[in-house]
Amino acid sequence: MLQKKAKFGLGQVVKHKMFPIRGVVVDIDPKYSNTEEWWQAIPKEIRPIKDQPFYHLLAENSESHYVAYVSEQNLVKDTSGEPVDHPEVDYYFGPMRNGKYDLDVKPN
Questions:
Q1: DSSP single-letter state for residue 47
Q2: Torsion of CA 82, 67, 5, 38, to 10 degrees
């Protein structure tokens, strides 16, 4: 099976195509790697294919902050230029520049 290269990178701010969710990419799985139970919980009519990159996001919506797991087909680049207001952003990243967070290398 041919796996495509991830469209989004670490530190990039993205938003969901269907839901009011936006976030910053903190990890990428080349293909689906969550549980079968999680997969089956997605309504069949909107369930994405497994053979594509999936992104771990420090996500936010109007009500909360959380970690989301989203397929590439459901994401687009966020062009708002607004920072992601997630409490863990500063743990993973440095400042935001041009819509992308710098990878923050912290000394041990």
A1: P
A2: -140
- Model's pTM, two decimal places? 0.89
Q: How far apart are CA 33 and CA 30, in angstroms?
A: 9
| Total domains, the chain | 1
Q: Please give the Cα distance from 94 to 104 (Å, whole number).
A: 5
Query: Within a domain: residue 43?
Result: yes
Q: Cβ neighbours of residue 99 under 8 Å, at least 6 residues apart?
A: 12, 13, 77, 78, 79, 81
**Given a cut of 90, is residue 16 above it in pLDDT?**
yes
Closest CA to 22 of 75, 93, 97, 94: 75
Where in the sequence is the domain holding 94, given as residue range(s)?
13-103
